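To fix ideas, we reproduce below one chain and its tokenised fold.
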Amino acid sequence: DDASGVGVWVFRLRDKLGGQLTGLLARLENRVFLEKADPAVVREARLQAEDAARQQAKLEQILQELGA
């Protein structure tokens, strides 16, 4: 049914956001990346990580409110 389809979609989105955030944080913890990358690229990666963390937190809050 539609509700279970939405539930699957939400959990997939949560997993996708978690994966993106993990990858971005690993990149930002990489000393070589931080030293060699253009500062604009590093800044963009930080912004993307912050955005992914915000989206993930918002999604987790929604899931808690739904009791999932």
Observations:
- The chain has one domain: 2-63.
- The helical segments are 2-29, 31-36, 39-66.
- DSSP finds three helices and no strands in the chain.
- The chain has a mean pLDDT of 90.
